[in-house]
Amino acid sequence: MTTNPQRRGAAVESRVLEATLTLLAERGAALTVDEVAAASGVHKTTIYRRYATREQLIASAVMSLAEQAVPPVADDDPRAAIERLALAVAATTRTDAGPNILRATIAASATSSELVQLADAFFRARYALAVEHLRRLAESGDLRSDVDPVVVWEQIVNPMHVRALCGRATSEADARLLVELALRGAAP
Amino acid sequence: MTTNPQRRGAAVESRVLEATLTLLAERGAALTVDEVAAASGVHKTTIYRRYATREQLIASAVMSLAEQAVPPVADDDPRAAIERLALAVAATTRTDAGPNILRATIAASATSSELVQLADAFFRARYALAVEHLRRLAESGDLRSDVDPVVVWEQIVNPMHVRALCGRATSEADARLLVELALRGAAP
User: Fold this and answer.
1) A106 to B110: CB separation less than 8 angstroms, yes or no
2) Does residue A178 surpass a pLDDT of 90?
3) What span, in angstroms and rounded, lies between the C-alpha atoms of A19 and A39?
């Protein structure tokens, strides 16, 4: 039997990162590399060969999540698409996994400036889709063109993120209110 | 010489918490209890007698910061007062200490649900003053009375908080834009 070391390496990596994400979602940043080894069936020394520290392992797992394709919103109405994306974020705040992973991302980033940049990349990747719809609103004259659409999206989702970090969920009604206020604030 | 154990206890506590805050501001959440012991001159076992874990020590230090009185904004114009408070938050994001302490708060809270509630109390204490001014705007008819002023303040400061967590500062111009958009969004 011939083995392909590159493919085997990718499979090991994916098992390790998936086990890390599952543990993060269940329990937050308190996970240990021993637990990841047990859950993934990959030896601890193999994990440490790829990820020098527990924090780098957490950061890599979170980044693998950010790189997963967000399902496109099939909607010709950009306002409806923005509301749908905001409701999806709010729904995440009402799970255990979402806030745990968010807190773990920040907690990992608190240990080094390199990981702070990873947290930044994580948020930016998550914003991209909504910002595209906001840009369409600006092009059609429904949003001020001199306001960065990223700022408008931050005003919609960052209150939900900070509440989630503080253990508070956002209801559907509250998510709709955030969208309404932010779009009204940046209306021409 | 007579000693007052209660007063001595308070002095020890204040030295420990101040040393913790200084280390948090300088280096973020990576501090150890050994370093706090060295910086405060208080023995490690005394520190552990008061704070069962490193995370509880960090949380207590951050809460002592939240309890420090915020200097009142001497301004009869609530809009100007809100902008001044937003500019103060933005100025904090341009320091090393502010983002480091913010990240450390979240990182400590990632380890237990009890500490998540402390993070929530920290943010609420910080919001109180601005929310008071927003309430005055609603009373004078300059802000919708059916919108919770906390939501308006969240739309102003939470983008700055999340950027700070991600290692990005907020400029004065950006802070003013956030205020302008949020107040316009919630205008009657």
Assistant:
1) yes
2) yes
3) 6
